[in-house]
Please model this.
Amino acid sequence: MDFPIERERMVEEQIRARGIKDELVLEAVKKVPRHQFVNESLVGEAYNDYPLPIPGGQTISQPYMVAMMTECLGLKGGERSLEVGTGSGYQAAVLAEIAYKVYSIERDPHLARMARELLSKLNYKNVVIKVGDGTLGWREFAPFDGIIVTAGSPVVPKPLQDQLKDGGRLIVPVGSSAFQNLMCVEKKGPKIKNRKICGCTFVPLIGDHGWTQE
Ligand code: SAH
Model:
């Protein structure tokens, strides 16, 4: 399988064709070797138009969803961004192609370790991963230009909103456990602007400002 060709096809047919225009995002997605972020048995499906399972009952999002969420952040390059829900590390790698620094939090220590090892092997030096409850954000490195939450929450986690820089954006799926609206929360001075982007379904965000553990 010719992975660069598969990736090119994925970007053109699934991502650009659906309206993603930001060249920084298209270039980033074209570069990240998604097949390395999935289990060996799924390598042949890595560039297909759907989410795939990763260990711990979690999922790596559909390529289009990753590109769309990244575009919504509106990064121009040079920013400090936070991701909640590292999972495989794929979204973190896409962010790392654009941002100056990516902080990513994962609650499952096994996934965090795997992602850390893979990103280091792929030479992503600007990603830092920690194990913890991402609904609390990462105070030490706040405020952030952009925050992306890759798990579904019942509410917009307040600490994440508080850790946004002025002019910064928070992208987070908010709703029930079965269905959410992808929200873009923008901080403009003292004002907070909420915009609904689209419907979506993510695995649950479990933490103090998310769902309680079942
Ligand atoms: N962005 C990932 C997909 C993540 S799936 C990727 O590109 O592969 C969602 C992840 O969020 C899961 O790994 C889950 O363990 C994690 N998660 C759920 N609640 C969390 C929380 N409160 N803090 C950090 N991670 C959380």
User: Anything to note?
Assistant: The helical segments are 3-15, 23-31, 63-73, 90-98, 109-121, 158-162.
